[in-house]
Amino acid sequence: MSKFQNKFISITALICALSILNGCGDWRTISAAAPPPPPLPAAQPMPSDDVALESSVRFLEDRVKMDPKDFIAFNLLSGHYLRLMRERGSVTYLELASKTVHASLAVSPRKVNTGALNSLIYVEQASHDFAAAREDAKELIKLDARQIGAYQQLEDSLIELGDYNKAKEAHREMEQRPDYSPQGIASMEVRRAKLSSLYGSLEDAEKHLTSAVAQAVDAEPPSRELIAFYRWTLGDTLFAMGKYEEAENNYRDALTTFPDYYRAVASLARVRAAQGDLNDAILQYEKAVKLLPDPNFVAALGDLYKLTGRDKDAQAQYELVEQIGKLSKLNGAIYNRQLALFYADHDQKPEEGYNLAAKEYEARKDIYGADALAWTAMKAGKIGEAQTAMKEAMKLGTQDAKLYYHAGMIARAAGDKGAAKENLEKALKLNPKFDPLQSSIALKALAE
């Protein structure tokens, strides 16, 4: 990237920061003054360093065995495990990272071991213990307020907990400590995109994510995983806007940079289904499930089997969803919401799905938790509670076809035909093929 483009994005960041510091109350207006981002850089293959990474892991594992008090080696090792978890999605690496970071903190307390505390927060977030992550991020800020990463972790945790006003406060604190390195700008742009998306501006989210990709490509050294992650995130934003061809291009770009990146493979399957090529979608989902048997991927593959008349194969996938979701306590924490929504989407175990969603919502009151509660409550026949929860889910103005779909179906169940029609139309206009099974149900309901 040219120096002009870097300066351009720095000016954009400054405009956003000034908007926030001037007390802007509604996130949807923060990015309005920002100019469009530079063109998206072309995807380039990047060499894998898996061999070097695995060699380093083995060295550090041997090191901590020989010297169990070497907390620096423990910290490096936990960082490697967290990276492997991000790249491959395996819960095994999360468990190893957790064990390693706690070993480090047992040797050297958090007050003088902020590296371990930083890794602990990532472990807690990945384990969906967002309340603990929030408190530990606050402690990390007290120990070292110069660490912008601590504010990022705090913002991320607050968003997952549904405390959006405090999340914006944490974001303001970050904006007052700008990091104009490519990595710093990319990290900030991704969080701007997240808030823009939550507050209903997918167009602004697209701009910020485009800038994030450009900065990640320009970083020294560039991170293969981060570039692929940002391209995948941009693809998902475009998919949410119904821009299927552009979304597909970004998923394929992510796979050019990072072949077999499991997130991009699964999202490519989803967009191919939306484009009507169910055979290719099945092939891509089968590949994704081999890379990582995530319940969402498994359920989606089952849905496509069902749509193509492979009922026995579909049932096998549906049974696997439950097995994965209940495989361990950690799996239960990570996949709890997915399992609840799976039950609701497939009209299975309505009371169990509702109980799963309700229990999680007690501790994690984000809009998607409210949506899960609303959807499962409707399937359990609790229409009044479903309406109340759905109102909470829609409070930010988030432009998500599934939210509109759920709102429409709940209104339909409550006998409010006008609201049902309005919300179903919004869902199908925004993203007409948001889900192979559910979008067809939305069409039928609207026709009625």
Account of the 3D structure:
By secondary structure, this protein is mainly α. The protein has a domain at 338-447: Tetratricopeptide repeat domain (Serine Threonine Protein Phosphatase 5, Tetratricopeptide repeat, Alpha Horseshoe), CATH 1.25.40.10. The protein has 23 helices and no strands. It has helices at 3-21, 50-66, 71-88, 91-107, 114-126, 130-143, 148-161, 164-175, 182-198, 202-218, 224-240, 244-257, 262-274, 278-291, 295-307, 311-325, 329-345, 350-363, 367-379, 383-393, 401-413, 417-430, 438-447. Helix 2 runs antiparallel to helix 3 and helix 20 packs antiparallel against helix 21 (401-413). The longest helix is centred in the first third of the chain and has 19 residues, at 3-21. Residues 1-25 and 29-33 have low confidence and may be disordered.
